[in-house]
């Protein structure tokens, strides 16, 4: 089961995704990137049925980029989350629904505010200070409940994230080959070089 | 809940996936000018329907150049839900409002395919319906004034949700009178 | 005068029945945008969309174009208060003050002379009324002969409001600006 974790801090969002891809009993990839950049200041992370996931993520990415070029300005993070939810919701009652869980991390340069949206495969969309998908939820949500502070700095956020990963390494029954961490802040989206 | 020339509508704030709590700030009451809609059930359908009704309500307002009355809105909810008779939205809606002409309180509830349940006293919906019926049945009395109605609905909701594992995590109460709407956030236990 | 959304109004010059089709299309589009994105539609996107529809009818044979010119007034976070006009060919343009319809050109000249960028809403209303009084064919202005609407922002709450004026409000403005009766003095 894939891991998605998102944490907002005072001035950024941190998104961690597991690096493994498994087919049946075999691990077939150990450096997978389960994220797509939607705009300069928003990042989408996804997990779920393989095939559905990248297809849906890239479909959303293409539509949001198209909006940007057509209208000459980028969509807000609220609009991005709402659009994504609507696509997922209309697919839900179609012949073949997408089975994709999503986190969208974004930074609003004008309002100087970081946001995190949690969307599950049923297309329920909520904005949260911190969130996770999959089995990881059961381990990290209680940790985050205890230690998260909306005014924490990016460094404190990363420390908290490290603690979450430590817990996961200890408790998850299957090796998820570590996580990749991306940060969204005023400067844009960037991947952290450290090995988590 | 209906009172004397006033109504009250209230909801908890929890959004969860079975036993896992996801959000403690998920409001289930939506405002369409002077009509109030409470939506419980599957979160995705709560969002979809609240947006759908916002769209239909706005179009009505612009085309008719007048506001929609609560009973009109109730019929809109009913027919919209029945449209999906064989693939329904999994929700339990309630509608509350004051008629703008007569000033009379209007409250009603629905099942998931749009059958309307009109009531003169109170309507409940969601996972804690059994508890809510018990509370409302014993606390509610006719012709309550706004402040007394607030106390009644708050106690009914709070004590019912404390006996339901899937409800809670905060609560919101609206008290609606002819010329004023008061929205209050209630502090509740967070477990 | 039609409300297109909570933050946009438009005025119509031309064939009314054509206009009502486009107005309906605009309202549906504004609402579906709100539903998809949970945000009010930026004014220019709505204007552009309507003009795309209008343009379509100039390119294909067998149908006549929409005989309507619009003036749109709206507000959004992107560009603040905005004013647009569009014509039957599907061209649109943004303005600080503008006019369309009969005697539109002379109204434009008057606006060019008297418009100032730092107008308050009251001053803008007064100028609009003045220009109307000079360019309309009828001798005296009354609330029965004109429609009036404004888009503003509440300074306290920051909420955008749009208002299509009631006849009594228009008469009050006519009285205040002295234009209702001033015509007789001329």
UniProtKB/TrEMBL annotation, chain A:
It is found in: Cytoplasm; Nucleus. Its main location: cytoplasm. CDD domains: proteasome_beta_type_2 (cd03758). It comes from the Eukaryota. GO terms for biological process: proteasomal ubiquitin-independent protein catabolic process; proteasome-mediated ubiquitin-dependent protein catabolic process. The keyword Plastid does not apply. InterPro entries: Ntn_hydrolases_N, Proteasome_beta2, Proteasome_sua/b, Proteasome_suB-type. SUPFAM superfamilies: N-terminal nucleophile aminohydrolases (Ntn hydrolases) (SSF56235). One of its GO terms (molecular function) is endopeptidase activator activity. One of its GO terms (cellular component) is proteasome core complex, beta-subunit complex. Pfam families: Proteasome. Keywords: Cytoplasm, Nucleus, Proteasome. The keyword Signal does not apply. Component of the proteasome, a multicatalytic proteinase complex which is characterized by its ability to cleave peptides with Arg, Phe, Tyr, Leu, and Glu adjacent to the leaving group at neutral or slightly basic pH. The proteasome has an ATP-dependent proteolytic activity. Component of the proteasome complex. Belongs to the peptidase T1B family. This is Proteasome subunit beta. It comes from Sugiyamaella lignohabitans. The lineage of its organism: Eukaryota, Fungi, Dikarya, Ascomycota, Saccharomycotina.
UniProtKB/TrEMBL annotation, chain B:
It is found in: Nucleus. One of its GO terms (cellular component) is proteasome core complex, beta-subunit complex. Keywords: Cytoplasm, Nucleus, Proteasome. InterPro entries: Ntn_hydrolases_N, Proteasome_beta_3, Proteasome_sua/b, Proteasome_suB-type. Signal peptide: none annotated. GO terms for biological process: proteasomal ubiquitin-independent protein catabolic process; proteasome-mediated ubiquitin-dependent protein catabolic process. One of its GO terms (molecular function) is endopeptidase activator activity. Pfam families: Proteasome (PF00227). The 26S proteasome consists of a 20S proteasome core and two 19S regulatory subunits. The 20S proteasome core is composed of 28 subunits that are arranged in four stacked rings, resulting in a barrel-shaped structure. The two end rings are each formed by seven alpha subunits, and the two central rings are each formed by seven beta subunits. The catalytic chamber with the active sites is on the inside of the barrel. This is Proteasome core particle subunit beta 3.
UniProtKB/TrEMBL annotation, chain C:
Gene3D superfamilies: Glutamine Phosphoribosylpyrophosphate, subunit 1, domain 1. The gene is PRE9. GO terms for biological process: proteasomal ubiquitin-independent protein catabolic process; proteasome core complex assembly; proteasome-mediated ubiquitin-dependent protein catabolic process. The keyword Repeat does not apply. One of its GO terms (cellular component) is proteasome storage granule. Belongs to the peptidase T1A family. This is Proteasome core particle subunit alpha 3. InterPro entries: Ntn_hydrolases_N (IPR029055), Proteasome_alpha (IPR050115), Proteasome_alpha-type (IPR023332), Proteasome_sua/b (IPR001353). It comes from Sugiyamaella lignohabitans. Pfam families: Proteasome. The keyword Lyase does not apply. It comes from the Eukaryota.
């Amino acid at each position: 089961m894939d891991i998605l974790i998102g944490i907002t801090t005072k001035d950024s969002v941190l998104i961690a995704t597991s690096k493994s891809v498994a087919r049946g009993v075999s691990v077939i990839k150990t450096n997978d990137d389960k994220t797509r950049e939607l705009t300069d200041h928003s990042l989408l992370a996804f997990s779920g049925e393989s095939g559905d996931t990248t297809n849906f993520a890239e479909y959303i990415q293409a539509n949001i980029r198209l909006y940007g070029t057509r209208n000459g300005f980028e969509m807000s993070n609220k609009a991005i989350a709402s659009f994504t939810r609507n696509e997922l919701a209309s697919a839900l009652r179609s012949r073949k629904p997408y089975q994709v869980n999503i986190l969208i991390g974004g930074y609003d340069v004008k309002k100087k505010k970081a946001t995190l949206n949690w969307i599950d495969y049923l297309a329920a969309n909520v904005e949260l200070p911190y969130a996770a998908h999959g089995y990881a939820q059961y381990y990290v949500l209680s940790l985050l409940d205890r230690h998260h502070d909306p005014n924490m700095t990016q460094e404190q956020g990363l420390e908290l994230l490290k603690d979450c990963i430590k817990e996961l390494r200890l408790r998850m029954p299957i090796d998820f080959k570590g996580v990749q961490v991306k940060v969204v802040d005023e400067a844009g989206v960037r991947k952290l070089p450290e090995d988590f | 809940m209906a009172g004397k020339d006033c109504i009250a509508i209230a909801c908890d704030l929890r959004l969860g996936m079975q036993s896992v709590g996801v959000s403690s700030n998920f409001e289930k009451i939506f405002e369409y000018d002077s009509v109030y809609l409470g939506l419980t059930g599957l979160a995705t359908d709560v969002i979809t329907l609240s947006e759908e009704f916002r769209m239909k309500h706005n179009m009505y307002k612009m085309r008719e150049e007048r506001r929609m009355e609560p009973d009109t809105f109730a019929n809109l909810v009913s027919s919209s839900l029945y449209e999906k008779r064989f693939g329904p939205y999994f929700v339990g809606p309630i509608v509350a409002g004051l008629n703008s002409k007569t000033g009379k309180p209007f409250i009603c509830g629905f099942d998931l395919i749009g059958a309307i349940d009109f009531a003169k006293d109170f309507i409940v919906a969601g996972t804690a319906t059994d508890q809510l019926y018990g509370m409302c049945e014993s606390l509610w009395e006719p012709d309550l004034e706004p402040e007394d109605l607030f106390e009644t609905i708050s106690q009914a909701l709070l004590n019912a949700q404390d006996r339901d594992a899937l409800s809670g995590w905060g609560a919101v109460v609206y008290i609606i009178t002819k010329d004023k709407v008061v929205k209050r956030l209630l502090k509740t236990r967070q477990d | 005068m039609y409300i297109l959304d909570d933050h946009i109004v438009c005025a119509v010059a031309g064939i009314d029945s054509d206009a009502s089709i486009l107005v309906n299309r605009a309202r549906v589009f504004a609402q579906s945008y709100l539903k998809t994105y949970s945000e009010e539609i930026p004014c220019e996107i709505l204007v552009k969309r309507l003009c795309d529809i209008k343009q379509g009818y100039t390119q294909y044979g067998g149908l006549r174009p929409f005989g309507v010119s619009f003036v749109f007034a709206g507000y959004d976070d992107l560009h603040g208060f905005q004013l647009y006009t569009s014509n039957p060919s599907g061209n649109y343009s943004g303005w600080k003050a503008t006019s369309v319809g009969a005697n539109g050109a002379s109204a434009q000249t008057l606006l060019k002379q008297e418009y100032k960028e730092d107008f308050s809403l009251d001053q803008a209303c007064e100028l609009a009324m003045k220009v109307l009084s000079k360019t309309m064919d009828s001798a005296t202005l009354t609330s029965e002969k004109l429609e009036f609407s404004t888009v503003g922002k509440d300074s306290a709450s920051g909420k955008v409001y749009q208002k299509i004026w009631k006849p009594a409000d228009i008469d009050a403005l006519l009285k205040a600006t002295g234009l209702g009766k001033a015509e007789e003095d001329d």
